[in-house]
Amino acid sequence: MPPPDPSADPGGGAAGSPAADADPPVVRARSARDLLAAVPHLLGYRPRESLVVVCVTDRQVVGLVARVGLDDLRGGSSGREGRGAVDRLVAAARRVGTAEIVAAVHTARDARTARRLVGPALAELALVGDVDPWLVAPEGYRGLDCTDPACCPPHGHPPADLEHRAVNAALALTGRAVASSADDAYRLPRVDDARRSRAARAATRAARAREAVREAPAAGAGATPRDHAARSRASGYDLWCDLVRHAARDLELGPGESAPTDLPPARLGRFAVALDDVAVRDAVLLSVIPGGDEPARRTVAGRDAPDEDAAGRAEVEVATARAIARVVDPRVAVLPDPGTAAAAQVVLEQLVAHVPRRWHAAPLTLLGLLAWWQGDGGLAAHRVAAAAEADPAYRLAALLDGVLAAAVPPGWVRAMPRGTGAGADGGRVG
């Protein structure tokens, strides 16, 4: 079983591509066993009862790392759900220009059962690129189809062989932590009841004040409910900017000196109510895109502009479209700024940790979008599913869920020349 000799580039950068501007670290994988060892680092957790495929492009870089649950491949009595998972997996592999595939079946089941479950998926993947299948079990790992005891002992090679390879140390130095499970990797931070109570009280007060303004009749030449709404949106966006600056300072100080959990609970509660306004949510989204602050501020200021200001609203829409294009359009796409994305993620995660569930849909959807933009389709799918549980009718979550189900990568991935790496888990495939 001669192994391939790919170079794993989890950052997905190529000279002259948008991703190259971020100067991602390059980690070399010298064999299929190196790629097997790298899987937990690339996913962020140790997969269980899963088929994990590592797609290597014709330029010998990792184009996609994707996981599908073995039970998802079975898909029930009709098999339709399993077929859909396989179709999405194959489509994602084709999209990145796959030449070789290392397919790892992580399971405690016997090899025969594992082979039966993944057989149809491996057959379809073989139409995309050369497939090298492996079985990774608790007692050891081996080639899934290997019958040569000199090559693969009956109980496999010892697990420590994967744990102590040079590629693991190199990936650890890039900051890629490994959780024991997907639930651990995706778990949001927790805060104590006192902080949650303060945030909830602030949110309740803000919601009551908003309703009081909405119900107040317009009186004479004074401020109208529309004026109050415009000021409230601007104030909400200012609050977001303050919270992001606070989180950015904490992140710069590093662990032990300060902590992002120091974000004021009352301000998080007020912001949760502000974020419930679609204009504020859209402004928050725009604010994390390079060059998006101006259209963000015009979005919160112009949502209730009078009819005669149609030209001004059109300018806002054009500016917004240009900003969003930097996320989705391969012709002008950019990578997220790491510092901005990290600070925004802290604020949104703390928001979910502090406020009641009725306010979770917006921040969870934005967290999902941030994860997708950064190439982490698994995390994105987890956050979007949680948003849908909080509010099944939340439209932006449904839209993003469709993007993930189709395994559509962000614009900066599609901007790369065919065969350039896209990093780990660029879309949800199962």
Automatic annotation (TrEMBL):
Pfam families attached to this UniProt entry: DUF4192 (PF13830)
* Chain positions covered by the region annotation Disordered: 1-26, 209-229
Kindly give the InterPro entries that the UniProt entry links to this protein: DUF4192
Low complexity: which segments have biased composition? 16-25, 215-224
This protein is called DUF4192 domain-containing protein
Say which species the protein is native to. Isoptericola cucumis
